[in-house]
Amino acid sequence: MAAEFETGFFYKEPAWHGLGTVVDKVLTAEEAIKAAGLDWTVEMAPLYHRWDGKVTKLSDRVAVRRETDGAVLGVVTPGYRPIQNVDSFNFFDGVTASGAAKYHTAGSLRGGKIIWILAKLDQNGPLNIKGDQVDKYLLLKGSHDGSGAQKMFFTGVRVVCMNTLQLAESGARSETFYARHQGNVLSRMEIAQKILGLSLKHFNRFQEIAIKLATDQLPPAQMPLLLNAAFGTSGAISADQILDMNTISTRRKNEFEVVTALFEGMGKGLDNPKIKGTKWAAYNAVVEYVDYHKKFHGEKGADNRLDSVWTSTIKNRAWNFVTKA
Question: Which residues contact 126 (CB under 8 A, 6 or more apart)?
Fold first, then answer.
């Protein structure tokens, strides 16, 4: 098991550097939760403080504990209400039962603190961006450590290269589902069926924007500015400064050179004459860099890589730049 990537399954082929178990059939919710290694529950446990020989129970904090092995996944307030993994899958069943979507991957990160479920949406087939196909997905990401709400949003994957496009930040926040870990969360999950209708609207709009990006060429002078915006380089305020490489670090220079090479045709599918040199190609060069070339070091490297696939601010800033340039 690589680093802190705990467990997971992938449909048909391994993703993200071969992590997880590959399955060759469409899974039911019951099969998926077992294949993902998520067939466990959490419980709330009291916390105690020992000082000067005395043990005192804390009144304002409790632990979220996994019942199978006693692992403490987080420390939260007493009002916190955990969403069990089985409830997350039951929620997704509202989407997959219609046959419009199927479980594609699921698993956990950081020792079980973070869980995810990804379903592929089969409505109307993949998006067609001037011949560049993009599959449509629905992602649910949740936590057991109190770090945030359960969140479900749309994402896309370019078929030619398996690059994951970050659609959740492309002006669709109103179409993102949140379930707070307080009160009666499960009643809010009744909106699952509405997601299919929202997905059609969302992906249609995204396709319109993407086709425009795949039509518009990116002027050479704009590429350094895109990189500056995407990577958040401080001090580089003009194209001339960035091209001169005098105001950025060696690491940034190397990153810029890799992304530029991908954009100029080394990227998977980016030599396609229908999209080569366009804003769409430039955005996907950044995406490919984040998904496959960016370095993630340390024992949490695998976790951080997988998390960045879905939530990278670099991708988000690149998208914002090309859509506004």
Answer: 133, 134, 135, 136, 159
